[in-house]
Specification:
The complex is a heterodimer of chains A (about 260) and B (about 290).
Chain A lengths: L1 H27 L8 H41 L5 H39 L2 H7 L4 H38 L7 H11 L2 H27 L4 H31 L1
Chain B lengths: L1 H8 L6 H7 L23 E10 L2 E11 L4 E5 L6 H8 L7 E6 L2 E2 L14 E4 L11 H11 L5 H14 L15 H13 L5 E5 L7 H17 L3 E6 L2 H7 L2 E6 L2 E6 L1 H5 L4 H10 L7
Parallel strand pairs in B: 3-8, 3-9, 6-7, 7-8
Antiparallel strand pairs in B: 1-2, 1-4, 4-5, 9-10
Helix pairs in contact in B: 4-5, 4-6, 5-6
Chain lengths: ~260, ~290
């Protein structure tokens, strides 16, 4: 039992070390970004524009549910006017960055792992090496850079849409009955640049985690089609886990 | 000091400038019509000395000693799973030997502290699966190295792509996506992609695998034409004996991770080694004669 536990610890340490090494190498190649602009824009479009419709849908429903659950409770104490502040702070500090990043992990992280995994299995990565094209520079760098830009941008949208969704429910739901101008007033009062910055910092870190995990798992893929499937699942699970862990520590340090 | 410059000048492949201009560090040449010696392909000498490799205790390559001359077409034949492809991957640095040396033009390819150091030769490999990039078109696949390394101007790159596709008999197929290609066409695009580097060394890993006899024959003709038109060292790994006999200047037979016979096609056919005889007999289905 101890042996198995030890092996798992060693495996986790090895994975962490390899991921950090990949991160360092990927960041090193940021200097090559200007000559990889087409690839970076392709990834930006895939991560940002591609995820925007589903992220918007998710955000509006999160905002609406949040307003509904909280608003009804607050109304029972007669403090429903504070709903705007609660929805805004929840969306900006937690729900916007975390939920959007989880969505990106499921949609884009898995696709990065599958794409790079397939390239690994079908010798395309080896082909890149023989063409003297560094796979980290060619594949990982554009994805990481795009994720670092696209995920915070997406989070800005989800924050706005979520807050608007909450405002809609607070205005139309008779049990809450907070006019939109009152809701909006509380939103503006609750939010400041510092809170928004904290939310976007979280989004940037989570975006980096999603891209990095997708690339790492992709590069480690083996065992043919089955291995690609396993990598896809592994990328999503690992991204989720790391997002939750990072979220705790970021929240703790930014309190 | 003056002697130093004189010596370096007289040794074109030895100094750092010639390595930069002939090797892969190309971006500094952006703007010129073509990298100064892109057109120059010289073929390389390859020497393997006591190369050993094991995977999980399985000794795949056992004391491999091999010498391939510049400009030679050399085939490595043998049954599946005997270490042929692993041997090839060692030459292009996709695998590192457990022991032994691999020399290209007298230089140990692993005897450098800087793995990104410029080398004074270009190599490319045609993979068994073709390994084309599925998200790219034929034109983009063939031109990938040229564009990534900024070897030439875009106009010149397009000209080179057209020329290489013509060499492999795929003129006019530039716009096709790789998913629209047959197995034989994929292989030829992979060859064109390799040729676009104007390599000094080209390696083929099972080029006829999964191809029908007619397509294999077409491919053999393409490689034969290249042999006539382009001066490069060619290494072919195959279990297709007839293909190797048709194309090669020399052939090595590998069995159980060891080289058991080396010689010209005639010498191989006349070999009395029982393993070679058995391989020839089974691959020709027992048909006697040439």
């Amino acid at each position: 039992m101890f042996e198995a536990f030890g092996r798992k610890i060693l495996h986790a340490a090895q994975t962490t070390g390899e991921m950090l090494a990949l991160l360092v190498e990927t960041v090193y190649y940021f200097k090559e970004a200007p000559r990889n602009l087409p690839s970076i824009f392709r990834q930006l479009s895939e991560i940002g524009i591609g995820t925007l419709p589903i992220a918007s849908l998710m955000a509006i429903f999160i905002g609406m549910v949040l307003a509904l659950q909280t608003g009804v409770e607050l109304a029972s104490f007669g403090t429903q006017e504070a709903l705007g502040s609660i929805v805004a702070l929840s969306m900006v500090k937690e729900l916007g960055p975390v939920m959007t990043s989880l969505l990106v992990a499921g949609r884009v992280g898995s696709s990065i792992a599958a794409e790079i995994g397939a390239m690994e299995v079908y010798e395309e990565i080896d082909a890149l090496k023989t063409l003297d094209i560094n796979p980290v520079r060619y594949l990982a760098m554009p994805r990481l850079l795009a994720a670092l830009v696209a995920v915070p941008a997406l989070v800005v949208f989800t924050m706005i849409i979520g807050i608007l969704g909450g405002g809609l429910i607070s205005d139309v739901n008779p049990k809450i009955n907070v006019p939109f101008n009152v809701y909006y007033d509380h939103v503006v009062r609750a939010l400041n640049y510092k809170e928004i910055f904290k939310g976007l910092l979280k989004a940037t870190v989570f975006g980096g985690i999603v891209a990095q995990v997708g690339c790492y798992v992709g590069f480690k893929t083996s065992n043919g089609a089955r291995g690609i499937g396993q990598s896809t699942t592994r990328a999503v699970v690992l991204s989720f886990l790391l997002i939750f862990v990072a979220n705790y520590f970021l929240t703790r340090f930014m309190l | 000091m003056a002697d130093f410059f004189k010596t370096e000048k007289n040794k074109p492949s030895g100094n750092i400038w010639s390595k930069l201009t002939h090797g892969f560090t190309a971006s500094i040449f952006e703007g010129c019509e073509c990298q100064s010696n892109y057109e120059d392909s010289h073929g390389v000498d390859i020497k393997l000395i006591d190369v050993n490799k094991s995977f999980n205790g399985n000794h795949v390559l056992k004391n491999i000693n091999l010498e391939i001359k510049a400009g030679e077409t050399f085939s490595i034949i043998g049954p599946s799973g005997t270490g042929k492809s692993v041997l090839l991957k060692h030459i292009v640095k996709l695998e590192k030997p457990d022991s032994g040396q691999i020399l290209i033009d007298g230089q140990d390819i692993y005897d450098t502290e800087d793995k990104d150091a410029p080398r004074d030769y270009r190599y490319s490999m045609v993979f068994q699966s073709s390994a084309l990039f599925n998200s790219l078109s034929v034109e983009e696949n063939v031109g990938l190295w040229l564009r990534e390394k900024r070897v030439c101007t875009e106009t010149r790159i397009r000209r080179i792509i057209r020329e290489k596709l013509r060499l492999v008999g795929l003129s006019g197929k530039e716009a096709l996506m790789t998913s629209e290609l047959s197995g034989g066409m994929r292989k030829r695009v992979a060859i064109a992609r390799s040729l676009a580097m104007n390599p000094d060394l080209i390696l083929y890993d099972e080029p006829t695998a999964e191809l029908d006899p007619v397509t294999s024959d077409e491919l053999a003709r393409v490689i034969m034409n290249l042999k006539k038109e382009v001066n490069l060292t060619t290494i072919i790994v195959s279990h297709d004996l007839n293909f190797a006999l048709y194309l090669s200047d020399r052939i090595a037979m590998i069995s159980g991770g060891e080289i058991i016979e080396i010689g010209t096609p005639e010498e191989i056919k006349a070999s009395q080694n029982p393993t070679v005889r058995k391989f020839i007999y089974t691959t020709t289905k027992g048909i006697k004669g040439d």
